[in-house]
Amino acid sequence: MSSKPGGFAALRHRNFRLYLMGQGLSQAGTWMQTVAMGWLVLKVTGSGGMLGLVSAAQFTPTLLFGAFAGTLADRHSRWHMLQITQVLATVIAIALGLMVVTDTISVWSLFVLAAAFGTVNAFDMSIRSSFVYELVGPDDITSAVGIGSTTNNIARIVGPGIAGVLIAAFGLAVPFLVNGVSFLAITVALLLMRQSEFVPKVPVKREKGQVREGIKVVWADSRLRTPMLMTVVIGMLAYENQISLPLFAKYTFDREATGYGILSSVMGVGSVVGGLLIARFGRATHKRLGFAAAFLGGSMLLAAVMPTFWTMSAALLLVGAGSVAFITMNSATLQLTSPVEVRGRVMALYITAIIGTTPIGGPIIGWIGQHIDPRATYITGGLACLLTAAFAWPSLRRSTEEVLSEEEEAAIYRSAIIDAETLVGDLDSEIPINLPTEK
């Protein structure tokens, strides 16, 4: 039976349909917990700095264990390992919810549970990104990634709003408990899958020095080096919405958790709209990468000075669109420029540059929000984007992209848009949900 890449072809696979239903519920639960976690940290500590440190505690395990988790995913059954991670995530979420119910939560337990979530997710993330391939095979992987990204976007828009309503009506514990139950949805979906229909894993050959070679290639070519350095600076200071938005809601606009949920949902809408618009821009270039960074910076500065909650919500539509535009242009230009034989390693370094800066940028942005003003967090991020774009412009202006076939260019650009929408959601949710699969 032949299949066409893209579209809804992946839905013909029973195992993928089960995975999609379970994952959709789980993602909605994760977004509910994101809102509840940010609000809980502010309630327990009253500190933006502590909010940044808790965020760092969640992302750090991904840096420490991500490579090791990928090795395990290549050596062992991803199906079995996913069942283990879902059960562990269920236990942690329910434990957190029960501690909130019994009023036994404390600052130290917030850090312990945040690190526990991050550790479980470091393994879960590496496994899931490659498990989808086993469900649909090479012909339908593009379709599967696109459908998964759409599901994540829906969860990102709906989940925070539901969380705000639940917190207002029933208290902070409910989103954590609901998230715990949502992990059981994907566990049941995994158990219902037919193992006989899995695509066999292809052994991955690992050699020493591959990462170092990727770094050397990036540093030797300014067309790769400049975008990567831009990623480090902008990723560290501009992609910390999981810290900035709850501070805006609580301290700038005196809103409850429902306000934070609205701001987060609006960001999700902006990301989706941005993905649709960026698809019409044509070929990604280094110059357009500079424009995207400037647009993101300008939209953040605009949002920072908005006088009311609703005018800022409107401005966040632009911030969400700018976030997707910058990551899309960055991902696409790196893929268009890097040699095919090291493209996977270049993109792995790119993901590390974004995720790896969060444990550093989170505490910085949290401190700024606490000791200066929440608006200063966006001013910092906006200026970082504008200044980085200005310093990088001479290099970006001289850069040229490789000449590829129209088909390959279209495939790279399409995948970059999908990956950008997903990655923006990952960064804004504190807990990465579905990092881009290796191309």
Name the CATH superfamily classification of the largest domain: MFS general substrate transporter like domains
Number of strands: 0
In DSSP terms (H or I, runs of 4 or more residues), the helix count works out at 16
What is the beta-strand fraction?
A: under 5%
Distance between the termini: 24 Å
Low-confidence stretches: 1-5, 431-439
Which fold name fills CATH's third level, the topology of the largest domain? Growth Hormone, Chain: A
Please tell me about this protein's structure.
- The protein folds into two domains: 189 residues, MFS general substrate transporter like domains (Growth Hormone, Chain: A, Up-down Bundle); 219 residues, Up-down Bundle (Growth Hormone, Chain: A).
- Helices cover 79% and strands 0% of the residues.
- The protein is built from 16 helices and no strands.
- Helix 1 runs parallel beside helix 5.
- The chain starts with 13 loop residues before the first helix and ends in an 11-residue tail after the last helix.
